[in-house]
UniProtKB/TrEMBL annotation:
Alphabetical UniProt keywords: Signal
Organism the protein comes from: Chryseobacterium herbae
Pfam families linked to this entry: Peptidase_S41
Signal peptide residue numbers: 1-19
Statement: the UniProt record of this protein carries the keyword Signal: yes
Protein name: S41 family peptidase
Length: 342
């Protein structure tokens, strides 16, 4: 199977069933899980650590208790749990199935919890009159086509581009504290002006050997030199501007990829708390009955091929958020101090 290693953005494979054969519920369950196990055995990142004979036998035994295909999808939680596939999911009719990663709220400030409850959206605004502030939350959708990624990314890019033309900025703050994941391509295309025409991240295999690179070039998002989506850029790049990236305990998955894209960028600093630690790269694969498997196939790396289990900031700030008054937020204060230094 040919894979494009982009987090949650790959052309899926499709499997066609014989429509002339009338299938029972158990037939449907068997067809689906047979295909699922084949894909896990062949492409799952940690496949060599799994006793597939035992896992397969236990799974097939457990499947006998389900009366219909939909209810059988609950078994994916058990299966993924056994093989440590905590970043994998199966989607059926837009509903996810698989393991649920429970994040502790003990390390989150009351201000973070209050703001997160409001479901904050993408935002661009001015701080202190001369600093651009970008809030990049989770950006989640299931249509990974190039056209839809462009449709999502372009309006966010336009907000940043319009802001840069109307404001003279000394630097930028990128706030990823609410970025719990989603589609990294849309996020990074939106941030094209800040990242410029460069390699921005990649993936490494289980031996930490680099096996793919992602690059931005003239508004195009290139994975191993192949275009997967784009934005229409305008104006001058900001790739030499000072940027402070703020992370938190629930900056995860694509949020971590977005932070990784700024590792190795000149005039850049990371501030806040270590990220969640979901730094595996996923692909989407079509399975029977219009299901989609989100499968971990590699580890995320920065532009230089370095892997991080957690992204640790350069300056640590813990539980000193203030979203009611950003200028009183310790993370923002550190970011402003960095930007102000000559």
């Amino acid at each position: 199977m040919k894979k494009i290693l982009v987090l949650l953005c790959i052309c899926g494979l499709s499997f066609h069933l014989n429509a002339q054969k009338v299938m029972t519920s158990q037939d449907s369950i068997k067809v689906f899980y047979d295909k699922l196990l084949i894909m896990l055995k062949s492409d799952y990142l940690l496949r060599k650590d799994v006793d597939w004979k035992t896992v397969g036998a236990e799974t097939n035994q457990n499947l006998t208790k389900y009366s219909d295909f939909k209810s059988s999808l609950k078994e994916t939680e058990v299966l993924f749990g056994k093989i440590g596939a905590t970043h994998c999911k199966v989607f059926y009719k837009n509903k996810p199935y698989g393991t649920t990663v429970k994040a502790s709220t003990d390390n989150l400030s009351s201000q973070w919890k209050e703001k997160f409850a409001t479901k904050p959206g993408f935002e661009v605004k001015s701080l202190s009159g001369n600093i651009g502030y970008i809030l990049m939350p989770n950006i989640t959708f299931l249509d990974f086509s190039p056209e839809n990624v462009h449709k999502i990314a372009q309006p966010m890019y336009d907000q940043i581009a319009d802001f840069k033309t109307k404001n003279k900025t000394e630097g930028w703050i990128l706030d990823l504290r609410f970025n719990t994941g989603g589609n990294s391509a849309a996020m990074l295309l939106a941030l094209y002006d800040l990242l410029g025409d460069n390699d921005i991240w990649g993936t490494v295999d289980r031996n930490k050997k680099q096996n793919s690179k992602v690059k931005l070039e003239k508004g195009n998002y290139l994975s191993n030199s192949k275009k997967s989506s784009y934005i229409n850029p305008k104006g001058e790049l900001l790739d030499k501007a000072k940027v402070a990236v703020i992370t938190g305990p629930l900056t995860a998955s694509s949020g971590e990829v977005t932070a990784l894209a700024f590792k190795g960028r000149p005039n850049t600093i990371l501030i806040g708390e270590p990220t969640f630690g979901m730094t595996t790269s996923n692909v989407d694969i079509g399975l029977p009955f219009d299901t989609v498997l989100i499968l971990s196939v590699a580890y995320d790396s920065d532009r230089n091929g370095n892997y991080y289990e957690h992204i640790v900031p350069d300056i640590t700030v813990s539980k000193q958020d203030n979203f009611n008054d950003l200028l009183a937020d310790k993370n923002i204060q550190e970011a402003i101090g960095f930007i102000a230094k000559k």
